[in-house]
Batch of 3 targets.
Target 1
Amino acid sequence: MTLNGKAIAVLLLLLGWSLASAAGFEVRNAVSRLDGNVYFLNATIDYELSPQAIEAINSGVPLTFDLEIEVLRIRRWWFDAQIAPLKQSFELKFNALSKRYVLQNLNSGQQESYSTLYAALGAMGRIVELPVVDISLLDPGARYKIRIRAVLDQQRLPGPLQMLAFWSDGYRLESDWFSWTLNE
């Protein structure tokens, strides 16, 4: 059986589509726990970068990732009320001199380096004991939920790359919201 030119073009198009659609972020799991008067978050997030984002990092362009966290009061007859928004930002860049990937938590300033991109993405995807909300901000009789998502921050890309990112799906990387009910 031989493939003609049209069949090969369709196969290449489908292969390109499947590779492009493989990129994205996914919150695998997330839980909160009360310790003292503070709720802490533990989560696992998979960061799968597009070929364009990988090329940008390997070319020395730093990428910024945001972990958006919201505590919402559940209301029956109206939209849920946002009680405590929180954003954790991480910058990932490649250091050509040391040939290592540097991951910096922009909220705390903490910085670590990794020998591979996948090790850096794995470390960024492990959220351990992140303080989210103090119990004093919550009404005892109300119901609450927490939701989180991961996003590639296109606004922090260098100017020329922002224009390219506007037209390219390779830089529109974000997870769906992952939510659960907060138990007191």
Note: Confidence is low (pLDDT under 50) at residues 7-21.
Target 2
Amino acid sequence: MRGHWAKADMERLRSLGIISGFADGTIRPNENVTREQFVKLLLESLGMPQVRKTEAVFRDVPASRWSAPYIQIAVAKGIIEPEEYAGGNFEPAKVLTRAEMAVMLARALELEPNESALKFADADAIRQHRGLIGAAVKSGLINGTPQNLFQPDGVVTRAQAAAVLSRMLDMETIAS
């Protein structure tokens, strides 16, 4: 982590018990985040309680899966909408995209949709949930690249997720 751009954000989330390291003691900031990992991080950041008894919401997320309680509460809170996932599968181990992260954040914080905030050179590549993604951008939670790209299909690293969640915590602190 020494000298990493997201060191402060990752250490903040670690100190709050939101993110933890791996068995070897590393944080691995450049490792990709999966859908289920981000759902857990998001809910932990929001202080939402974990559901103990779970029912399968998706065919590929049995109640016995470690992430099932988190996914169940995310569905119950409207952060994840099952009908948006083809064939009833969430694909929890699939790498999270920037668009998916922005949508989950906007829903979790109940941000007002704002498509006009999408002023990126690749804004046409944002095919779904344009208003929700724009809301996450307008709120300052997620930014584009120095080349003015949003990269909706770009994968999210642990460092990027930590930076976004740290910004969200700042928003929540200001709002309360």
Note: The mean pLDDT is 91.
Target 3
Amino acid sequence: MKITAFIATAIASLCVSASAMAGTIAYSTGSYNPWYNTTNDTAMNTAFGAGTWVKSNGFSTNVFANADFVFLDGSDSNANEFNSFLSANRTAIATYVDNGGRLFLNAAPNQGGSIDLGFGVTLQYPGFSGQVNVTAAGVAAGLTTGGIASSYQGGSFGHATVSGGGISDLIESEQGGIVFGAMQYGKGFVAFGGQTTTNFHSPNNDAQRLLVNELQYVASAETQGNTDVPEPASLALLGLGALAIAAARRKSAAK
């Protein structure tokens, strides 16, 4: 019984720690959903579970408060609004990542011009991509998890490419430009994309899963900041502890 009590106490402690470490997962876009559809919302639900993340329309630095992972999409008619937000808050955004935050900046503009994304990275618009390929580095990063395709087509899979800052090339256009890339920055991690929404991509089901994999890849990236997700060893301990308690109860009932 002492062992059972110890395990129960350990599990309770781990649960409290995991809860205390858990932060916010956030998705924010401009005044309008990109191309007036909710495929990004669907991907967020698939990646993290419905009700586990928060969404906001209209860019604000409030999205970074207590957030572990933030997805900002400034595509379509939100591009100028997105550019203004980045320009006005470049230091605050860099500080968020530098302190251990995880950030995914994506924009497939339908207005304006190239955008300084910060971190030494430029989003080059126009930069249309009718076909893209997941690179070997992208495959290694888990972007094709689930056995999905590594090559995609679309009238415009991407409206822009990203370059600079020493970013890794994870998805590239047929012309060789980077459509999705990422890098470590300070204690955190930041990814950049020029992708349109998945309703424009083919094969469509795989394309939706590709976006899910991108979101999960960035959100779970190794950082030097505070760990917000229980380590695999902790999760295993929780499972073993639960089994031990169940076995102890069965043994006690058999006496």
Note: Residues 1-22+231-255 form one domain.
